[in-house]
User: Fold these one by one.
Assistant:
Number 1:
Amino acid sequence: MIAHVETRKQHKRKTLNMASVLQALCMLFILAASCGGNKQTPKQRYLFVSYGHSVQIDCSLSESDVNVTLYLKRFSTQPTKVVIDNVKWRQRKGVFTMTVTQPLDGGEYICKAINITGHERITKELTVIPIAAPTNDKLKVEVKPPSLSLQYEDNANISCSALGKRKLKWYKIGLGEQMTAVDKKDLINDDHYDTDGGSRIYHSRLILSIKDATKKHAGRYKCVAKSNNQKREEFVVISVRDPKKPSIRNFPPVVIASEGITITLKCKTKGSPRPKITWYKDDELLGICEGGNSRKCQSFTKIKSDFKKNSITLYQLSYTRNNGKYTCEVENFMGKFSSSARMTIFSKYAFH
């Protein structure tokens, strides 16, 4: 009698195990059906869609005199009509496409058809279940650029980034490999989502911001990324040039041109910090291009001209307007230097 009872228990346990296996196989079948481009198969009731991916719901019918509408029902709420905005939702020939699936897009989708007499009927019901896409959670960190050479008083940003939600921190490495955490005022948090192939991917990014670079900013820096029990680090080397008096290279002493053409004079400079450039014609101020990080240029002349960084462009040269001495003057806190060019304009009729 006891043996008979044990046999019944074993039979019940086997039955439960078999039911669990069948349930798991059923779920795998549903998942497999939903992985082929996120389109439902005939008579399919459930569709699993990874976050950020698109999904198609086919409400099309063979009848040509019906109007098909898609509704969404969440939990116990009344169904609401899906709005076709050609951004989130698109519709073509009865096939509705959701371009990017988010967690709140889950629910029961209902296809309703209305014919010319106003008769309405439900043609299809499909439950969409958004899920987190499987990811390779191996921690990787990237620093850009890996090295940087700056002029005195330059500005620069160095980016440390990693995929996923990570804890990032910048350190400066001193003597004896001693690490000092970078001050928060010199950091910019730029965590954001990027779209890659329809998927929205979270990026952690912490930017080291160098402003008005001096020798104190030079050295080795390390970005450390942490997530769970993982830790990765990358390095960057920053060099800052010593302050240096400005100079001018290859500025032509003589320029000969004909009327009506356009010409550009370049004032190639060296100096740290980047020098301010001032242009003169016969000692009359033409324009100023600020030094340092600004590089903004301002014109003070009615002569048809354009100032960019270290050059001046003169348009439609005229003998009466453009003949004369052009001077490029460069200056920073270390000193000042200038070079001049004598420009001679020939009339276009001079050789006729």
Number 2:
Amino acid sequence: MPRTPTRRALTVLAAATLTAGVGAGAAYAGHRSDAEAASPSPSMMDRPMMDRPMMDRPMMDRPMMDRPMMGGDGHPRMGAFSAEQPFDAQFLDQMSVHHRGALMSTEAMIADSARPELRELAAGMLTSQRAQLDRMLSWRGEWYPDLPPTFPTGEGMMDRPMMGGSMMGKRMMGGSADAEAMYLRMMVAHHRLGVEMAEEAQRRATHPRLRELAASMGAERAAEIEVMESHLAGATAPGRS
């Protein structure tokens, strides 16, 4: 008789999905968090970001066009767009995967949080991103009916290693507060990548409706980043359990 997945298992799975969808964004967030905890000695890292050589900057701080098309695991990197495929199709494919990761993670990790402010955040994100995903899928079929997917659809992503090997699984085995804090940190990085992609679409998309949607997405994600960062600050304030 098959076992029903536990909430902890679903939480780990959601975190893995979010990480797989983010690629550079979540990896950068995890790397920066670990590096800060290790208190690196003064070096290139202490120089302002824009004063560092391009290749010494974290992937998320490089211009889109300076990021490699492929990740270190050989899979296409989200946020990198090829000149050989229509930009609009690539954006729709990538942002659809990006949204699916956010939806799954949000449903599993904060939709039923004990914190009302996180439930409110989840409700808004789920409503908005479901509607946006529906529009993107509709446009993809309408505009490029014969073009094969330009980016992995997300199927099989769970077979890929999670960020940092077992690091994610170990972190997610904590209590619900730990899981929610992890969600917020990861989703901030996830949203930052989404904002960059949306800005790229506003400059490069050929369909006016897509440029309009990208502008709306960028504004919404930027506002949600501010909300999530404020929740993170509140969660780590002295006296909060």
Number 3:
Amino acid sequence: MDKNKLIAETKQRIDEINRKLKEIQDGLNGQHNDPLRTVEESTLKDLHTLRDELQAQYVRLSSSSEKMGQRDYDQMEKNIYNSLQSFNDAFTNAGSIFTRRFKRPE
């Protein structure tokens, strides 16, 4: 994938991640005495850390020189893909923790 396309797609994914994290955070607000609150906050912190790592890679990519070697670019692309996969896996695994909070009454 060319650099500009990778930058655009990475930015789009970061925006999606930020929306997901905001949804979770909004759902947690006001739930101060819930016994699972600590677990949820810890999980949310882990998701934020993964997002921050991805954002750092995005910044490095978008500010890197056009003369970046193909090998460096390939490694950066691989790192971004792996970070996205790590976030998606963690988000999926965290789903059971947050599902009960956001489950709508039937």
Number 4:
Amino acid sequence: MQPTRPTAENLKVDMSLEKVNKGEINKGEKGNEKLAKYEQAPSRNLFPNVDIIKPALQSGGLAGLSGLIVGGFTGVIRSSQSPFVSATATGIQWTAFGTTFHASRSYVFHMWGKDEASPQDKIKASAIAGSTGGSVAGLLRGTRSIIPGAMMFSLFGAAGQYVYNRTDARSSEPSEEENIHTWLNSKWSPVKVLSHNEYEDMLLEKLLSVNARIALLDENIESLRAEERMIAEASQEKEELSLPVAPVGKEITEPQNYPKTKSRWW
């Protein structure tokens, strides 16, 4: 019988058994959890895959197109150099730098195996990618330009990634309190940005002031009505006092005017 070749599953089981025997993995639930994590760990290949190469070529194409445009304008401005030669040389250099930068940066993240890289890791990866891209771009200009190009583009990559991280951190942390602190809230601005809570508080204050004014108007109306009642009562008392008062036991009779007649003696 021919000896069977060890498969990947058999190798994983043998390695896990060796770790259990050495005491690195405890038996029981903890051992099962560690073994499951170990089995689920993704395997990383040293060679880049299509997911890295294809976006790198796209980035290089865009960079090369930009280089053609910039090189053409540079050749037109410089009368000593042909616009076609300048555009071609600049396009080739920018294509090489863009492709190398994007590919090396993606490859670094692929080798680190981090799904979500921290801002520091992004700065390191951009510095490495800038150094690689600068070396390739410098090689096209001559061997003497390799080291200066690597150093210069490494600094540019790290600085650009740092600025991008700061900008992304400010835009990715939206909150009502932080968004309010804009140039509109400066002391020189005639307009102020209000949050929902501030606008609600302002409306409540206005409503309270309106209710207070209505209460004052009600009090004034009530006081005016009281004064009218007092004036009416006073005028009624005056009318009652102005009427003639008859003595007790006598009635007031109005004088009657009888016609005067002559007396006759019969």
